[in-house]
Amino acid sequence: MRRRVKGSDGKTEQQKEYFYGYKGHVSLNAETGFITSALATPGNAHDGRQFPRVFDRDLALGLAMEEVAADRAHDDTRPNLTRINPQHRSNCPPMKP
Q: Fewer CB in a 10 Å sphere around the end CB: N or C, the chain?
């Protein structure tokens, strides 16, 4: 990513913008509050692309899922919606069809 900044001579120039950090993507059991899967990614990783990794880990563990909910950052790709069986989708927040 690049940003525009003014140099000491007053001219505008482009500089590369760096981001340092990480994100945690977590799945949990709503009744117990226990974390069932966790994934750490670089801070610039796209949230919507991490959902399948966490969701598939829970499926591989054989965890029973009555409902699946995610925030809007995970609500941007049709594959995420089609991965979840209709009876497991939460209405809060609704995922885009």
A: C
